[in-house]
UniProtKB/TrEMBL annotation:
Cofactors: [2Fe-2S] cluster
Membrane spanning stretches: 47-68, 80-103
Protein name in UniProt: Cytochrome bc1 complex Rieske iron-sulfur subunit
Entry's family note: Belongs to the Rieske iron-sulfur protein family.
Lineage: Bacteria, Bacillati, Actinomycetota, Actinomycetes, Propionibacteriales
UniProt entry tagged with the keyword Electron transport: yes
Membrane topology: Multi-pass membrane protein
Ranges annotated as biased composition (Basic and acidic residues): 31-41
Biological role: Iron-sulfur subunit of the cytochrome bc1 complex, an essential component of the respiratory electron transport chain required for ATP synthesis. The bc1 complex catalyzes the oxidation of menaquinol and the reduction of cytochrome c in the respiratory chain. The bc1 complex operates through a Q-cycle mechanism that couples electron transfer to generation of the proton gradient that drives ATP synthesis.
Species per Swiss-Prot/TrEMBL record: Aeromicrobium erythreum
Domain named Rieske: residues: 259-328
InterPro entries referenced in this protein's UniProt entry, alphabetically: QcrA_N, Rieske_2Fe-2S, Rieske_2Fe-2S_sf, Rieske_Fe-S_prot, Rieske_Fe-S_prot_C
Subcellular location: Cell membrane
Any one cellular-component term (Gene Ontology): plasma membrane
């Protein structure tokens, strides 16, 4: 019985034939650029011109970014936004239109019929597809149309100019950003109350979030010279933590023996990994933990990294006491207060000062 069923199944399988002998395709219509060399060259110049103008618009984007002030207006619009949008949008539009015209006028233009097939193509079909792709590349004329090819590469390459300019808005460049507002003699104040701090007010094991007194001017004193977002940036970069440990638990490195006051040390609040604010204090181990990626610093050992992705010690601020008994900074931070940017600028400045 099984043999009969098998024989019946095999004999009932129809041979593969084309479902529609004539799908109704109209005769192929040749385009003007296919039969007229002059039309072909004209289309090539038009497409190349679009790509070239797109490259110029991308360069104008960068020029507009730096040349037009943000407060200038054009037809009651922001002149800067209008120029940036027009140049970037126009360049991208020209690249798109140029590619479409290239495909419609110069690339291969032959009707194709593809029958339905199983989800997985056979090896022969895959080889045929690759052959068609290679044939399409040859018919596109990339190899024999250097004018279009080179102008397209020029426009796409020029697109990197707006990209680099826009990346600049992500934040200030690290060069020249290695200083804070801390200066010799500037008082350390509580970042909430703005009150200066005396050494006797800090207990062993205590941590205080603090900042420079410049942000809390006393009555009659001048306010900070920076305002708005610049003031907020300066405050965040100058943020510090003040901790007190037993002096016998501290192991200062050479040259830092006098940076503390009877066990009171001061460090930057900015993690050296990616700049997260840090103040998770383990008073028994003298460890400071970053809440973002768990970098751990030993404040009893010069802010040394003992765990996590950070690879620079936490910057330390040298402290002193003024004539009225308040804690003051003895200088700015000797190290860069920032994520792990190169320290060449500060190192060079230090060398220049020593020389």
């Amino acid at each position: 019985m099984s043999d009969e069923i098998q024989s019946h199944d095999s004999s009932s399988t129809p041979a593969r034939t084309e479902p529609v002998q004539d799908p109704g395709l109209q005769p192929h219509q040749w385009r003007p650029t296919d039969v007229d060399p002059a039309q072909e060259r004209r289309a090539e110049r038009q497409i190349s011109g679009m790509f070239t103008v797109a490259a110029l618009l991308f360069v104008l984007f960068a020029v507009s970014y730096f040349a037009i002030d943000s407060d200038q207006t054009f037809l009651n619009w922001s002149a800067s936004n209008f120029a940036l949008g027009a140049t970037l949008g126009g360049g991208l539009l020209l690249i798109g239109v140029g590619i479409i015209q290239w495909a419609k006028k110069l690339m291969g233009d032959h009707e194709m019929v593809e029958m339905r097939h199983p989800a997985r193509s056979s090896a022969e079909d895959r080889e045929a597809v690759m052959a068609d792709i290679n044939a399409g590349l040859r018919e596109s004329g990339v190899g024999r149309r250097p004018l279009i090819r080179n102008s397209l590469f020029l426009s796409v390459g020029a697109l990197a100019v707006p990209s680099v300019v826009l990346l600049r808005d992500l934040g200030p460049l690290p060069h020249g950003q290695d200083e804070t507002v801390w200066k010799k003699g500037m008082r350390v104040v509580n970042d909430v109350s703005g009150l200066p701090i005396r050494p006797e007010e800090i207990e062993v094991g205590q941590l205080i979030n603090a900042e420079p007194a410049v942000f809390f001017p006393a009555e009659g004193e001048e306010e900070a010279e920076v305002h708005g977002h610049e003031l907020l940036a300066a405050k965040s970069k100058a943020a510090i933590i003040v901790v007190r440990m037993r002096p016998e638990d501290i192991t200062p490195s050479e040259g830092r023996e006098n940076w503390g006051i009877d066990g009171i040390l001061c460090y930057s609040k900015i993690c050296t990994h990616v700049g997260c604010p840090i103040s998770l204090w383990e008073q028994q181990t003298h460890h400071l933990l970053c809440p973002c990626h768990q970098s751990t610093f030993d404040l009893a050992d010069n802010g040394k990294v003992i765990f996590g992705p950070a690879h620079r010690p936490l910057p330390q601020l040298p402290l002193g006491v003024d004539s009225e008994g308040y804690i003051i900074a003895m200088s700015d931070f000797p190290e860069i207060v920032a994520p792990s940017y190169p320290e060449l600028a500060r190192d060079q400045k230090r060398l220049d000062g020593e020389s």
